[in-house]
Amino acid sequence: MKLNLISNLLLVFIFLNSLTSFSFGQICPSGYTWNPCITSSGVNNVYLGYTAAPNCPAGATLKAWNYHNIKNNQVNSVDCQMARVITDMSVFRSVGGSCGDGATTSPWSNQNDTLDNTNRYFVSFKCDVPLYPNTVFEVNSSPSVSQAGRASCESSPGAKVGVVSVWDYGQSVCQNGYTNFPVCSTDIDECTTGTHKCVSPATCANTQGSYNCNCPAGYTKSTDGLSCIDIDECATSNGGCAQICTNTFGSSTCSCDTGYTLNSDKKGCTGKYLTLIFFEIISYIDVDECATGAQKCVSPATCANTQGGYNCNCPAGYIKSTDGLSCIDVDECLVNKGGCSQICTNNPGGFECSCQSGYSKNGASCLDIDECSLNTHKCNGSSLAVCDNSIGSYNCKCPSGFINPPQDRFSCQDQNECLDGSNKCNSPSICENSIGSYSCKCPTGYIKSSNDDFSCDDVNECLDGKNGGCQHNCTNSIGGFSCSCMPGYSLNGFSCDDINECQDGKNGGCQQNCKNSIGSFECSCDPGYISNGFSCQDINECQTGDNKCVGEYTSCQNTNGSYLCVCPSNGYSNNGTYCEDIDECLDGNNGGCSQICKNSIGSFDCSCQPGYNVNGFSCDDINECQTGDNKCVGEFTSCQNTAGSYLCVCPSNGFSNNGTYCEDIDECLDGKNGGCQQNCKNSIGSFECSCDPGYNLNGLSCDDINECETQDNKCFGEFTSCQNTVGSYLCVCPSIDGFSNNGTYCEDIDECSSKELNECGLNTVCENRNGSYICQCSPSDYSHSSQFTCEPKPIITNFYQKPSRSNVFIVEGLHFVEFATTITIGEEMMVCQYLNGNDTYAECSTREGKEVIGKVLVEANDILSEPFNFSGAPFVIEYLNSPSTIGGLITIKGRNFPTLGSVQLIINSVDCPISQPLSSDQIICTIGEGSGSFNYIRLLNESVTNTDLMYLTYANPIISSASKVYASGGILTVSGSNFGIGSKSMATLNIGNKHCSNVEIKSHSELTCELESTSKVYTNIIDLVVDGLPVANDYYFTYSTLESGSCPGDCNSDSGKGICTSFGCKCADGFTGISCNETSGGIIPKFPPTNPETPSIDVDNNGDNDGFGYKITIVRIEELDFNNAIIEETSFPLSNAKWNGSSNAPNQWIFNITLENKSYLEATFEYFEKSRNITFASSSFIIPAESLKLSFKTMKWPFRSKLSSLRVVVQTDTIVKNEDVEKCSISNSVTTTYNQHLWSTTENSESGMVARFVSLAELDSTTPITANIEDLSYSSNKKTSIIGISVPYFSKQSIIDPDFGMLLNVENKKTGDCESDDKANWKLATGLSIGAGATVCLAGLASFLYRKKKKEKKFLDGLSKR
Prior knowledge:
By secondary structure, the protein is mainly β. Among the domains are: 178-235, Laminin; 318-366, Laminin (Ribbon), CATH 2.10.25.10; 753-791, Laminin (Ribbon), CATH 2.10.25; 803-857, no CATH class; 876-952, Immunoglobulins (Immunoglobulin-like), CATH 2.60.40; 1044-1079; 1085-1301, Beta-galactosidase, Chain A, domain 5 (Distorted Sandwich). It is 3% helix and 42% strand. The chain has nine helices and 117 strands. Strands 67, 68, 69, 70, 71, 72, 73 and 74 form an eight-stranded antiparallel sheet that branches. Strands 82, 83, 84, 85, 86, 87, 88 and 89 form an eight-stranded antiparallel sheet that branches. The protein is flat. The relative contact order is 0.03. Mean pLDDT is 75; it is low at 1-172, 272-284, 1096-1106 and 1298-1362. Residues 1-25 form the signal peptide. One of its GO terms (molecular function) is calcium ion binding.
């Protein structure tokens, strides 16, 4: 048949398999012959049900045998992977050409379909050519070949063309060596693209679909075909050399023995006596090598000619080397140090003696230098260090209690015995260091022992006269004590709260009702019971007659807490108090009778129907089979009794029954084979089932016999196993593909010998296994990149840091893949990001700041290299001590510091000279001046750089002093240290809310600024920040004032009542008050106060409660921000606080309380009958006679910021008591006056109230400051004065105003508008000290009550704190 195709159809004639092995007849089913064309009747003779593909190319499986079902992968067979595709859809469409003989190929279903990634198929056409049976033509775009293919097909008689196979390429790439998917017709030039694997000096030569690695002259190709092996020319005829042949890479060179010169042909040699040319003697000639310059002596060796050669002679101090050409220096220091006593230094041709530090040279000897007598030592005498000479050095000794600092052996510093463990303090005493010594302090709850200075004895707080503060019981313990309560109370701190026993979960032990009372409780009972202590006893109403039971048949029965009216039996009904007969036969249950029920009074009777006998409530059946009263007959018939009757029954289901007679049934004829699964056989009254061979009978069923378990099978062989089937068995193999099966025996298939089954690819060797095979890598140093292919395993030969790049590293080796190489470092597998490289080199970058150390791994072609141990790049861990801004020695610690080459330490781009010797984990350098935090540390040499991001911070600024600035403002000069580096630094300075502008840094230790003016003088902390670093210490500043004086302006020195002293106004006997204008009245308060929860003191208590009263209240404690705004979260009202009170001494009472913020407040009242001098805050004061002093402290105040301050708000009220409310009134307002920053006074001239607030305060025990006193009163207030006293931030404690005085005396003043007597002669002088303890001391809650009667008026003078 002639082949007819469209003119542009291109055919390529190729053989997919050998002519003898390709046969379509082998894969067609019975009744089918191969014909890919569709007949005129539309019958498609192509069979699609193939399960194997013996004719697929190696590595491919069958996809389909007709092309019209391949759209979008919709095919009816298994996948076939193959690297050939077709792109021109016209080829598909051209398949519809004539096949001849009335048959046509199947047409393409959609002429608009195009080939894309979802239609990646290859179509091949089979041309049935009688001359070339089983030949395959494939579509291709090569016209030169297609013409030959077409001619071969058309010229063959009977040729037929049709679709043979469709192959799925599987992915959109070409086989190695080709590109231009999907045609894959363009060869890849691996030599140009650099994707070849030729190893130098081999050169790449491209071929179609691959390449060759060619070797230059002097090399031969290695077995891997990729590299070249050098040819040793000297191994053959000595390389043509007359004397010496030396092999080189790719070639060889000739040379001559000593005394001979190489000829111009580079092979022969000429000597003094003969010339050799390929071992032929020509003539005798002498050569002077020293004169001709042919000698090879190496300086300092000198040439001396000899017969037939020359000698190289060495000067003194050298010996000749083994090559005879050069000289080796003699190291004289190796023998007895060359005679030197200490240091011998070898020199070329000689040596030199020298001495160690601390010695002077004396010929070859060394003498000790006495640094102490020569005063060349560095001992710091100002730190008490004394020089002590030693051989070759000296020591700086320290006195007892002092030691040398760790990094300064020339100075002495105090030895902190408390830290180094050398103290003798016994627990629980606490070691407290001091300069040159230490002391042992006792904690709270202990006092110093009388036996020694190192121990503490327990204090029995329960014997302090206050019962330890406990309300009930006090129990002492070591270092403390505990409170307990009497029965009926629970402990609440120091107090005892009543216990509600009724809520203890046990109802107080009461059986029924529990009622709580203070310290106790009471039990009671429900109605129907009488109480018996905790228990309740029942009342028997049946005995007492207190019941309502009536009727002939009714009786009373007692119950717990009540009673019941009960009836004689169940034959009566009960309405609660009366019993009536029940007709049991009408109860719906027939009275319980099984058949017949008859009622009677209070009871009933049961009877039975015929065939039964009565038995109580039941009826017993009569057995007619036993009595013979039945009609059953026949051999197989038996009588069976029933309830009230009987039945005639047969032996089994194998008989029929007419009621009185039984007859056999043939079950095998019932249409169900008697229920037998296989065979049925009848018998009298029954039948029998049996089974076919291969089964066991199991009742009616037949169970399969497992021949594999019974060993009744013919399976044999190592890999053959028996598999049971229903009624038989099969001999099966471990897998279908790896074994052949003849029915009883499994034999391994050698896939390695089969081109179709062996999928092993590049760089592999197939190794057969039982039932399978593996692809071993070859050569052996290759590794699997997939199951069937191997690639060379990446090898790391070196890993190092790229010079001057902290986070860039270089890895060298073999078999890397450009832009497809992964590099990890260390145990955490840190990824080093690939930057660039080739097959032997890669650059990568790590994350900045990460330490680079440990095992390095390279992964290429999915193959992991062996680990390469990298000792690590330099990494800074810490630096010791922040240097001052003037610089100095610093120590930097870390790992893997460089010790060779030009090592540099650069801090903030400035070199830090390094002190020798170098260490891999520590470097000491001398840093220059600097400031701030962001000073990057960089450590490097020519090869490495640290990878961390460590920044050095210079020391924080420290203030040691500040100049005076008056309230009008002016230039402030601050002295200290670490103030930055002049104009290069930036500083800000604020004092409270006052800004100091134009800050100028004069030096490391001085700066100036312009401080603005202020209207009020008080102390604030200096807030200094230099280059982002805040000041390290707390330094307080107060504007200076021109006014001075510690006496009030009206101190009456002329009257003889008082005299002004440096301590204040000192009163004469009989007088008191701030100005000594008040007369002493013998006012003595009574201790203790009447209410321990409210601080109060009575004075001259006569029971009266009339007149004017005075109350002083500390109403609030407030934290203020730098703008004096209240911070509500850390401020507390103190109006309703509950205090704990106790007394330690006469005329003294102590109250304490803990606030919500965990701060602790304590107020101490102390009465002074006589005046007293007090020194406080570097100033002295006089407490007037008959004064009450209040010391107030607050501990552990948690400041929000160092810029905050703490304010105590004090309120002073004048009140009118009881009946005097109607008699007296106040019309004048309270006024407040200031005396610069010394004190403030509030006064109501009409009521006689005068209060003074001294502004001085003390912080942290040693720092005197000026408190800020503010008048917070409402304007025109007549009875109330509100004063705020605030201090700046402090770290340990604060004491405010030791002379808070309230003076009540109106000797010649009107005390209000009263109906009778316009004059009252009375007075009261009080002094208030608001003190501080461990952390902070401010104001708290206090209430005082004074009573004093003078002349016609009765006054209640109260000082109370809400």
